[in-house]
């Protein structure tokens, strides 16, 4: 339980969401995505003894004095209490994400359970309490029409896109007069279809409570995304449901099964040894990820398209963002990553991968105003590799092999002085950092990521029996390692870049030529080892000095730490990226450092931002930058595997564990049998002065060699 903070619930791929803003006493509802939300008064409360009390999402009546809030992966709960009246109203929303279950996950509806019960107080003299539940939903927009018929509320109307792409800046501009309009329906109905919304009378006592269950369904039949100017894509749920009534019937007919799946998915965190803070943080990042997903299909060709909006930035399937999100796919739904890898391959031109493939309601070409050729090429190579090693499915590598080789050839050509470090096309994703971090030549971060991509391609080339390219990759790795060892190490850490002067550098945002000394070149950076992640989790360790890598991680953690996490570098403390802190933590945990408690800092930051700060649900950035409604934080799930040091190679049928703390209990979700609801759990404890591991549902790992 916690204080009230802004939060959001949504469904996979479908755009539908409720965005609760207690500070503004309003709820934004949208059937077509967070950027099209409309304000509603969501009036939910009770009337007892002529006193009316509601949750803080409308202004019609007085608010409850005490409201607690709780989130899980599949639920959002408000518990409102009034001790004078001796009564509590519990309002619980359920979403229904369940890995690899398309229908359960995308069907555009929520369950809403209401429960009124008596509070027990010291001087309680009342035998029972009688009253009435107040339930109203009132749109602020006159273009959304509200009607009530028996046990249903009908809301039909227009939702407008509040932003459009500014193709000069690559950013999203707010629209005073939106032109993009979507027609959508919302129906709120009682599950038993008996009482209307104006007849919810109750009587509660020590032995009796009032309970009522509802379904909130949404539906949009409009085109959501146009791909390459001519291809119209609709929400995938249109493929399975013809109208909103069919959605409601599905929710009613399958209620028992769906609620069981909700319970199973929630249990993966609840049955772990993670703290409640860690569980809250992971759940919060998960909800902010889900609101950005779009699972669409073309009615003419039946082609499916899965993409993720980059939060308030609006870009489709940003490669560097999905590089950070992909641990979620490896754990729960690798096929979603496969869909993105295939989609990106359609847009690779000139031997480099674009930053994004469009924005908002169009997928056509990169919108972001500058390229990140080295970084995105490496990201794409490493994502293809990780998908193969964690699924043992080689077909994408087979299809993309020639492209992957060309991407690496491009990287090699960008090394102009033959030391292995790219000199050109080095602008990267850290777009609010200093020049040294963001677009300097010969960056250590990009060099190590290049080395990792080369190692991945070396292994792929060996599988393909392409000896010439294997040798080329090995030579590049050797060259980068030599430069790393001789020129990039400074006392107790790797420097940011090799260049001492900024001469010849161009600011990618202003096109201004930079001159003079490059400030922050020798700083401590949290990005150095970023590119090693997908190799290490696959139990592959390239030829680098891991003693130095470990010291670099430890030193940068010490030098860069602020209240809510580490800044980019010790010289550039203008911003913190929570998602990059998580990756830094995970890499450190795999190398033996227990950084798991840092999640406490990150959760405190999210609470600060969403109570008295700027809001926007998961906010990735602390500082002047404001990345909000952001999907990147969902990589937080990986703390489960980082805590246990889980490394998996499905090609070699190998699982390794090296826990960083004992006792520990974590679910091995990537090996779950979701059809039966069985999830293997690892439990580490001390017995007779020895570390012992117990594996629940071990039969799910029977094809693997386990090393501990």
Folded structure, characterized:
The protein has three domains: 7-271, Beta-galactosidase, Chain A, domain 5, CATH 2.70.98; 279-644, Glycosyltransferase (Alpha/alpha barrel); 654-707, no CATH class. Helix 6 (334-345) crosses helix 7 (373-391). The longest helix has 22 residues, at 467-488. Strands 1, 2, 3, 4, 5, 6, 11 and 17 form an eight-stranded mixed beta sheet that branches. The chain contains 16 helices and 38 strands. The chain is α+β, with helices and mostly antiparallel strands. It is globular. A hairpin with a 6-residue loop joins strand 27 and strand 28 (513-514). The mean pLDDT is 95.
Total number of helices: 16
Mind telling me the C-alpha Rg? 26 Å
Helix content: 25-40%
- How would the global form be characterised? globular
* End-to-end separation: 37 Å
Number of strands: 38
The SS-based structural class is alpha+beta
Assign the CATH class of the largest domain.
Mainly Alpha
- What is the mean predicted local confidence, pLDDT? 95
CATH architecture of the largest domain: Alpha/alpha barrel
Write down the CATH topology of the largest domain: Glycosyltransferase
Q: Largest beta sheet, briefly?
A: 8 strands, mixed
Q: β content, as a range?
A: 25-35%
- Poorly predicted ranges (pLDDT <50, ≥5 residues)? none
What is the number of domains?
3
Defining key terms:
708 residues; alpha+beta; Beta-galactosidase, Chain A, domain 5; Glycosyltransferase; 8-stranded antiparallel β-sheet; 16 helices; 38 strands; 27% strand; globular
